Amino acid sequence: xxxxxxxxxxxxxxxxxxxxxxxxxxxxxxxxxxxxxxxxxxxxxxxxxxxxxxxxxxxxxxxxxxxxxxxxxxxxxxxxxxxxxxxxxxxxxxxxxxxxxxxxxxxxxxxxxxxxxxxxxxxxxxxxxxxxxxxxxxxxxxxxxxxxxxxxxxxxxxxxxxxxxxxxxxxxxxxxxxxxxxxxxxxxxxxxxxxxxxxxxxxxxxxxxxxxxxxxxxxxxxxxxxxxxxxxxxxxxxxxxxxxxxxxxxxxx
Length: 253
Known about the structure:
Number of domains: 2
CATH class of the largest domain: Mainly Alpha
Distance between the termini: 82 Å
CATH superfamily of the largest domain: GntR ligand-binding domain-like
Number of strands: 5
Strand content: 5-15%
CATH architecture of the largest domain: Up-down Bundle
Strand order of the largest sheet: 1-3-2
CATH topology of the largest domain: Four Helix Bundle (Hemerythrin (Met), subunit A)
Radius of gyration: 21 Å
Largest sheet: 3 strands, antiparallel
């Protein structure tokens, strides 16, 4: 087979794998595929019009991200995401983003640092307007861009493992604190202070993890993600308490 044909086939397979991976991810995040649900490769292959080998590779990528779990002799299932899994992801994130901030001191361009500052301020403005979903998205962009600015492709690839899990949680910290944390990290990078940049980046992630830990301790933590419509969806759903009817006296108030 000519080299050009082989490269074209490889590219086509890669694009199909990414397409199926992203589609299954959306189905999980939207709640159409529920935690504990078995993912039948043959059914998915028919649904997306690809070979089962493409589906298998896509599910392996989602397994790496934590959205899918393999059960011996039974197949692939949608993961049961819980606080323990999310907190474990934050422990890894602390190390990776600390390293990214350190590497940025020597590798990030002025344009990249200017972009990070703009994202920090944008996050705060969205929070002030109570546009929380957009705020969360811009916050994630800040961290992703900082990792890319480290110019370490392997580090960028490894962060994919917790990037998707970040869609399931909002740490609910004061917006001003988040903005100031981001700006301090960028300032340390600009000043070429790798130790300080790493310390600040790690502390920022620690604060987020501790916020979640406090919610868990108080019994108020419920993983949430953004569905296809942009609406926050809690999962797994808890039984609802029937609404109490108002008395005539209460209605008159």
